[in-house]
Amino acid sequence: MKSIALFLGIVAAVAGLSADTSSFDRARSSAEADLRDALERLSALRDEIKEQKVPLSREMNTLQAALREKRRAVERAERRRDTHDMDLNQLRQNVEQRQDEIDYVSNLVAEYARVLEIRMDLAEQQYHADFLQRMTEAAEEPEISRTERLLRMVDVTEMGVSRMTQLVGGYTFPGRAVAPSGMVEPGTYVVLGPTVFFASETGGSGLALPLGAADPNYAPLGDPFDAQINELVREGRGFAPLDPTLGDAFAIAETKETFWEHIQKGGIWIWPILTFAVLAFGTSLFKIFEIYRVKMPRPGSLHEVLTLLEQGKDREALQFAESIPGPVGRMLADGAAHADESKELVEEVLYERMLEVQPKLERLLPFIAVTAATAPLMGLLGTVTGMINTFKLITIFGTGDAKALSSGISEALVTTEFGLIVAIPSLILHALLSRRAQGVMADMERMAVAFVNGLTRNSNGKGAEASGSDTENS
Question: What is the pLDDT of residues 310-329, one digit of tens each?
């Protein structure tokens, strides 16, 4: 069975192989036909390409040439653009530099305008008030264009040059000034270099001084100078007095004040200081008269008293001691009156006389010392109250008006000044008088010691026991 099946399978396989071989031949024939057709089309296509290659190459060369031309045009356009950008940037930089230069010049001219206003006389400021106001607005208002500000600065320069030209030959202009009476008078100003004169319509004339807050004052110079100023205003020519101090001498003269006016600026605390000053200086004069009139004995007076006592001439010694002037004579008289007593008693008598003299010499000296210590403190108190008043005025008037603050500052300084003026001489006088009083007491002590020692050495007979015991103790 298995052999039959194997045989049948082989037969089937051979039959199928035969069928596949015939199919393969048909497929091969078809493929060869397709190949021949494709080769023919390829040959035709190659011939067509060969025919079109030359025109296409020419067209491509033409397009490449056009492309190169376009690229060169683009490069030229880029170079022009870069050049244009560079020129534009350079132009912008130039514009910025010019603007900075204009701002710098404007600032310089604005500073010149400020300096010109400061250096300009108060009368000229009155005359050029409108122009100076426009310059201030040009420098401060941000809405004004740069061109307008520059044009105004040019006007400032032209005005400064014109003013310099006018100052060389002098010029006049109408205005007003404060007369010595305090009234504001209209008139004419004459500017000659740095000097300004004023001639009022009422006939007054003088040197214009920038002492007022709004209008200058004019100070009459007296004949014949006032007449020369009036003639100069009327005629436009003539002689004019010149002040080499440029008005500073008149300004200094205006600040001078009397001693009474100076004291009144010290406020309320100046009066206690002056009271202490009068009392202290009066006391000092009294003590000078009292202390310096104390007479000291001549050098041989003590020896003569001791000699008389040694000789037993007690009455003569007492009379001679009483004739010696001053407290030393009274002390020696007491010593001579008690020469018969013991040493201790004589010392007590002399010491008692010294204690009696010392308070008289030193009385009222503490008051001078108190004045020397108190006067600066009262001056400091006046300084504090003056500064308090100054700050009160600052809260009302601000710091712009110096005259409004001068009262408080004057009170602060004047009280300090007088406090020191009183304290320093008081301190010196107290030292001199104290030294003089101590010198008198030292002389009395020296005379007392010399009297006791001389009496002890020369005693014989009277008070022998006491003297002997004193000698042993010494």
Answer: 777 777 777 777 677 777 77
Q: Which residue has the tokens 């001199």?
A: 432
Burial class (CB in 10 A: 0-12, 13-18, 19+), 336: buried
| Site of tokens 């409004």 | 404
pTM higher than 0.70 for the full model?
A: no
Cα(293)–Cα(288) distance, integer angstroms: 8
Is residue 285 predicted with pLDDT exceeding 80?
yes
